[in-house]
Amino acid sequence: MTIHRVLVTDSLAESGLEILRAAPDIDLDYRAGLKGEELLREIARSDALITRSGTAVTEKLVGAGNRLRVVGRAGVGLDNVDVDACTARGILVINAPTANIMSATEHTMAMLLSLCRNIPEADASVKRGEWIRSKFMGTELNGKVLGIIGLGRIGTRVTVRARAFGMRVIAYDPYVADTVYERVSAEKVSLDQLLAQADVITVHTPLTDETRGMIGAKEIAKTRDGVVFVNCARGGIFEEQALADALNSGKAAGAAIDVYADEPPGKANPLVSAKNIVLSPHIGANTIEAQDRVAVQTAEMVIEALRGSIFVSAVNLPFEGTAEAETAPLINLAEKLGLFTAQVITGAVTRTAIELWGIEDRLTKILSIAALKGLLTPILSTSVNFVNAEQIADQRGIAISSTTHPTPRDYNNLITFRASTEHEEFCISGTVFSEKNQRIVSVNDFRVEFEPKGNMIYAINRDVPGVVGKVGTLLGDREINIADYNLARTSTKGKAMAIITVDEPLDLETLNFLRSYREMEQVRQVKL
Question: Do residues 99 and 299 make contact, with C-beta atoms less than 8 angstroms apart?
Answer without folding.
Answer: no
